[in-house]
C-alpha cells in the first residue's frame, strides 16, 4: 500500500516540470519588464501605464478583487500580441500576460499582477473580424467580438450560431476559454463543442491554426483552457439557418423530483426543444431580479403564497424556435408537451418573441439594474456541475438546507441538466463522469460591505458537497490553491500540466486563474 508521505503522480509531474523549466537553457537578450518596454517602438501608442487604463484592467464584473497590472496593451493587430508574448518569452525574467475579453470574470481571472493585460476589445474593427461562409455554414470571428455582435452580423445573412450563453455581452474568446453554456447546451453542446477551427498565439509567441485535424492537441487544450495555453485570436464557429421566432413557456413545480424527471426526459428526446433551463424560487428576496419577464401580475399573489407554503419551488423554462414553415405546428407541439409534464396547473407563462429578443433577454434586466446603480456591484457567484445521481441530495442539503437557513441569497438560482455526450473529453473543461449532470448557478448580487457573507455561503456549499462526496465540479472555477486545481481536474490534471509545459512553458499566460504560480 502506498504511503501518504509520497508525492502523488501528479505532484511528481509538476515537480519534474518545474525542475525542467529551471534547467531549460535561456537564449535571451535583455530582461524587459512591462514598465521598461513602454518605450519600445513596436508598441508606440498601444502600451500604456496610465492609471485610468491600469485601474480599469484591475477589476472585473465580480468586483471582489483588485489586481493591478503594470501596463495595458491595446493591440490593433494579431502581430502586436505576438510581439508582446515573444518579448516576455525571450526575456530572462518573463512577465505575466493576460488576455482580457470583456472582463466579465468574477475573481480576477483576466488579471495580470505586475504584468500586461491585453485589452482584446481594442482589436474590434468593423471592417474586419467576421467573415461568414454561407456554403460552409460557418463564421470566422475575431475572438474580441461580443456574441451579440456576432449574432447581429450573422442574422444579416439569415444565419446564426447555435449554442449560446444566457447573456450575450461576453467575448467569443472569454466564453471559449470556459465552455459557454445555457439552455441550448442539452441540444447543441456547449459553445466549445461548436467550434471548427482556432488561431492561437501560444505562450512562446508562436501562432498556429488548429482544428480537430490540425494541431488537434492545442485545439482541444484551448477549448475550456482558461487562457492557459495561448491567446485565441480567431474562431471558426458553426452556423445554422436562423429561426424567426421563439415560443417560450415556463412551468412551476413544487416537487423537485417531478421537476428533474421532466427536465431529464425532455433533454433525452431527440429533435424536440431548442432550449431548456430551470430555476429555483425561494421564500425570501426578489424571485428573480434579472428576468423581469415573469408571470402576469394577476398570478403574482398566488405564486408568492405557493412559495410561502412550500418555501422552495422550481420553474422549468423551455423554448421552441419556429419560422414560417413550422408556425402552424409549433402551438400544437407545445400544447402536447405541456400535457405531458407534471407541473402545478393553473399558472400560465407563454411568450412569443423574435429569435433575437429571446437570445438577448438578459439585456433588459442589465439595463434596468444599471439604471438603478445595481450592476457594478460585487458578484460572489458560484457555478457548479452536479452529477445527476447527486442532484436530489443537493436540493435537500443546499437549496432546502444551507440556502434557506442562511436566508441571504438573492438573484437568479439556476438548475438544469445537460448531457455529457455533447462534450468532448479532449477539451480542457472539467465535467462530471456521469452521462447527465446539472449546471447549478448562484448568480448573486451583493453590496460592497456584505459580499463576504455570500462568499462564506459559497464555501459552505462547497464543503457540504465535499463532505458528502458528491463529485461536484466548479464551472467558471476559482481555487485558492494548486491542490484545489489538482482535485478540480482529477484524472485530467496531468494532461493539463503537460499541455501547459508544452504551450506556455514559462507560465506567462492568464496568471489570474491562479493555477500555476
Ligand atoms: P474575461 O473575463 O475577459 O476573461 C476570462 C478568461 O479568459 C481570462 O482568464 C482571460 O485571460 C481568458 N481570455 C479572454 N479572452 C481570451 C482569448 N481571446 N484567448 C484566450 N484566453 C482568453 N457563462 C456561461 O457559460 N453561460 C452563461 O450563461 C453566462 N452568463 C453570464 C452572465 C453574466 C452577466 C456574466 C458576467 C458572466 C456570464 N458567464 C456565463 C460567464 C462568462 O462566460 C465568463 O465569465 C467569460 O469568461 C466572460 O467572458 P469575457 O469576455 O468577459 O472574459
TrEMBL record:
Residues 65-242 form the FAD-binding PCMH-type domain. Keywords: FAD, Flavoprotein, Oxidoreductase, Signal. Its EC number is 1.5.99.12. Gene3D superfamilies: 3.30.465.10, FAD-linked oxidases, C-terminal domain, Uridine Diphospho-n-acetylenolpyruvylglucosamine Reductase, domain 2. It holds the Pfam family Cytokin-bind. It catalyses: N(6)-dimethylallyladenine + A + H2O = 3-methyl-2-butenal + adenine + AH2. This is cytokinin dehydrogenase. GO terms for molecular function: cytokinin dehydrogenase activity; FAD binding; oxidoreductase activity. GO terms for biological process: cytokinin metabolic process. The gene is BnaA02g08420D. Its cofactor is FAD. Belongs to the oxygen-dependent FAD-linked oxidoreductase family. It comes from Brassica napus (Rape).
